User: Fold these one by one.
Assistant:
Number 1:
Amino acid sequence: MLTVSDALALVLVEAVRGTSEIVPLTNALHRILAVNLLTPHDSPPFHKSLMDGFAVTTAAAAAAAASGQEMIRLAVVETVTAGMVPEKSVATTSAIRIMTGAPLPVGCDCVVPIERTQFDEAFPDHVVIPCDAIITEANLMRQGGAAREGSQLLAAGTQLQPQQIAALAEFGEASIDVYRRPTVAVLATGDELIPFDQPLRPGAIRNSNEPMLMAQAATCGACPVSLGVARDTIDKLSLGIQQGLQHDVLLLSGGVSAGTLDLVPQQLAAAGVVQIFHGVDMKPGKPLWFGTRLFESHTTLVFGLPGNPVSSLVCFELFVRPALEKISGICTQRESGLTARLSQPFTAKGSRPIYQPAVISIHDGQFVVRPVAWNGSSDLKATVEANGMTLLSSGHGPYSAGETVPVWFWGDGRH
Ligand code: AMP
Ligand code: MG
């Protein structure tokens, strides 16, 4: 049987980056940039003051210091606040009162903070400044000091966070080229399923996989589309599959094991979906099915997720999430390779590697993972305590407390 990493590699071969679209900057949060962006102008766009104070020339201080003066008195010829443009320049006998963010006057190569200055009532419209406060290039930023026109601003594949939204705004990028959000159709299967807002009746259970998978797809930035429940009949199933194949990804839950009504693999084949694998060496999730369907140069990835809720949950996190990230154009796979120290000894039972629901937390600056009590793939209730999972295998032998093990956060991660 395929290992998880071999199966994931097969999935990622099929997951290809999607096309892009233009969105207004105000809608670009968390979207993935589709192009490399260069700065269209210098930042800051003009020489500017970084303090409230006085714009001066250091030549003034040099002259005073040469004649042994510790203080220098300069005539204040103008006041410039942020948003204004100075009309006058500064020379060895003059200063301009300037506020943070205002453009520097011609001749200025130093801003003296207001806290370092004094006033002499005998000389209104003058400022007195200690010579040692006049330091070349102090308290100012030169045009292009943060970024030169034409330098790299953001790389394609960057997921836009608030600081990048701000940088785009600073450079006047009002329309942003981002990757399209993949559409993910979710089709639950099973005669026993009733909607979650219905009272239970004998033999029935509520359809919890559909809202779970919709929510998981949403945490990937994808557009989830509900296809409802397909009953375990060929007609109903093939109708749902046809609808699902209109999308970038089709997630089916249930019907991929060995039961008499597990019709999903045969109906996917009938719909032209080519099987890539069926069965992965893992617990939960062993019956996972994966295939693709190419139609008019558009490929739909099709995952047949095992119906047991924890199997669906884990298979989504291990296989569907990385596929969606790749389709979405994210340049780095999220938090792969994370490890934590086991909080307690653990003995894994059974022959397959176990993806065990767990609580991942930080102690003394290090990730620690505590497996939660869990009764297998149908025990969804155990997962509400967990925020992720850890990988434990019986081949390893008993685990001791403090051992380092791989971990994955579920959903949005560390919440
Ligand atoms: P299956 O893979 O169809 O054999 O289903 C395996 C188990 O998962 C059965 O106990 C199903 O009742 C349960 N199951 C299947 N689909 C869902 C679903 N959408 N929500 C909750 N449980 C499900
Ligand atoms: Mg079923």
Number 2:
Amino acid sequence: METISIQTKHTQQFIPNSTLQKLLPEALTARETLVKGTGEGNDFLGWIDLPATLDPQIVSDIKVQVKRLAPKSKYIVVIGIGGSYLGARAVIEALQSELQPLMNCNENPTIIYAGHTLSEDYYHQLLHLIESADYSVVVISKSGTTTEPAVAFRILKKHLEQKYGTTEARERIIAITDAKKGALHDIAQQEQYPSFVIPDNVGGRFSVLTPVGLLPIAMAGYNIDALLDGARKMRDICLGNNTLEDNPALLYAVLRNALYRQGKKVEILVNFEPNLKYISEWWKQLYGESEGKDGKGLLPHSLSFTTDLHSMGQYVQEGERLMFETVLSVAHPLNSVELPFDEKNLDGINYLINKSLNDINHSAELGTILAHEEGGVPVIQIQLNKIDEETIGQLIYLFEFACGLSGYMLKVNPFNQPGVEAYKKNMFALLGKPGYSLEK
Ligand code: PA5
């Protein structure tokens, strides 16, 4: 298995290697704090060992549920928000083509999302879509009390019951929630839904390698064993290797902290493969919620190139110099498409015909990196061999582990998210929930 590596060629003129090496002891101390569980938030470190210790029975149970529900479901509606949604969507959308849901040759159910929005129009359309198709529901909430998924589940539970009757509706719902408490836990027990547990010591944004991510990913037809293998491989590297050259998590944590301390306030995660767009959404939550507190933290932003070179490219090249970029660089596509020769050459692109689309995309990538570097934007490159389950498993673990290291280097608790409660209090007060009033 080829492993992910990080290249610093395009950051060197901004931070010399000697500066990075000086920060290594700090990163190693952060790793010790993380692994020994002696830092803040140490009751949420279950994710560190998940790839190695996840009970194989859970993986078998997931496969049993897929075998049972997938053949009778054109759609699986996955209900969840934040950490109970983004990981599954990131992996599924990385592995499937953007166009796949539009193709009619799908052997596996198409995954649709709910509970991530309160838009009335969205639910109207969703109900229209599932009216004439068979579907099942996976409802995910760790607390079991989050408003958005609760609203979506209330609507879909009723719809399922009306469409299939109460008994079959029960068989078409799987709940993933806390082992002991919460409204969803109580409903699942009462209705006797097949259920999976979110471990107490794994926070939402670190939960993709629990049933929260694994069940929807398996429902979509992807290989969760390979995903876990990739994560396990990266875990060995993150825990076992001690230098910046052989441990990409140490290097990434050191690089982003060094750049932040130099005054860079924004990190842009860049892809040249549209499938990786939701990896960026997941990464934004991971780093934004973990580091954005106590008045500190890099602002995580993302762009999809070359699309966004024709919009935000201008700002990155010549706007305020407050950012660096981290490029997800994919070496090999899984498929090939030929650019045809055209005798008339009216479009003037015959000079490209001996190149693959991937060569052209890579030239766009290198051209962009060189231009942005020239424009004062340091560029970190994360090298992925290809986009498959193993590589995505590696990437997930790399980002999670580096996030723990980076948060401790920043001297924040990377495992809490007190700030996400503020909007809820106001929303509950505005909606008249008993016990809530608007704070002046
Ligand atoms: O990372 C987090 O903790 C949050 O994004 C939660 O996952 C999100 O708020 C959903 O919470 P819950 O799973 O309790 O419904």
Number 3:
Amino acid sequence: MPEPILTVEGLKTYFQLRSGVLKAVDGLSFSLAPGEVLCIVGESGSGKSVTAQSIMRLIDPPGEVVEGHIRYGDTDLLSLPEQKMERIRGDRICMIFQDPMTALNPVFTIGAQIAEGLREHQGLGRREAKAKAIELLRLVGIPQAEARFGDYPHQFSGGMRQRVVIAGAIACQPDILIADEPTTALDVTIQAQILKLLSEIQKRLHSAMILITHDLGVVAAMADRVLVMYAGRMVEYGDVETVFREPKHPYTIGLMDSIIRLGGARDAELRSIPGMPLVPVDPPPGCRFRFRCDEAHERCETETPPPRDLRDGHSVACHLLAAEKA
Ligand code: SF4
């Protein structure tokens, strides 16, 4: 296994709310190898996006990373001065957000926005930056790229805007791309095109990618490894084949049972996970999934299940697995 390009250790990102402390990410650890695609999955509020924002150091008050390490190679991102972090952000680690309109400035042309990034991060001159920006627009499939260089974001459709955002994100050939539900705001017909584009680009640049999604179909198609989160914590982590073939955590099993599988029995019953996701504001001790878990027992109410390695990096946080392993 190559040295990880990104290592997250014991990350805790909390929000001080009037109603209590929202432990949005609570002790998360994982790593990302160069060129690897890691999908982070979970329901809304599971801490997926806060994890991404913590890596990018984009957490605003009342939120704060209160503990943990985030290492990009040997560099501890959390202790880096903001100026140095700014260079890494947008150059070596880039993020693609759900809604392309939030990433684009409506008062500047799309060409100017991409070229500006190239001039700032790569020191290109005006002419070179324009040529490179047009090349990038072509690469992401914008028709008549040269003519559209001077258009404003509102002159593009949602799918085309997301292509522009991707062009901006890959302008400096980043080592890590973080895509936070990049197709959620788009029409279903466009979603597949954007995911295909992301996959092609990631392979072409050999960038590592963290793809945040709630769609297990996307995970199956794109991931090398998958991290399943529930209420701020990792519940299962491993290579995608193992987790799909042999999900071990009751929550992951519930997610798998709620999707139609190709090749599955025609009369297979689709099941939903009962109850509502836990919002981890001053969460009680014990397993956070216990309120929805058929297998919950006494120990689950008092003890937090630590992640345990089963084999080959397949890790699960559930007391049942501890018993099985022993
Ligand atoms: Fe269910 Fe207990 Fe395992 Fe949590 S630790 S998933 S409550 S069996």
